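Table 4 source record.
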Amino acid sequence: MDYGMIGKIEKAKRYAEERERIRLEHFRATFDGENNPHAVEFDHGVWKCDCDFFLSRGVCSHTMALERILDRMLPAPVEVG
């Protein structure tokens, strides 16, 4: 029995439960939209999406969905302006 691995598995479970300890700084995701896929990026508090709605409003259903999914794992929003 690998007791070192057992300890790591338990630690991983604890990290997964304590999501507020994790901060995502940069990532790229693809949403399979109803019409076509959309690329969404997050870079140090700034969202980008290639959908038309985001391009005109600076927010969209794709970015809002990821904000909900990643609750407490994102840094505070950056003021753009």
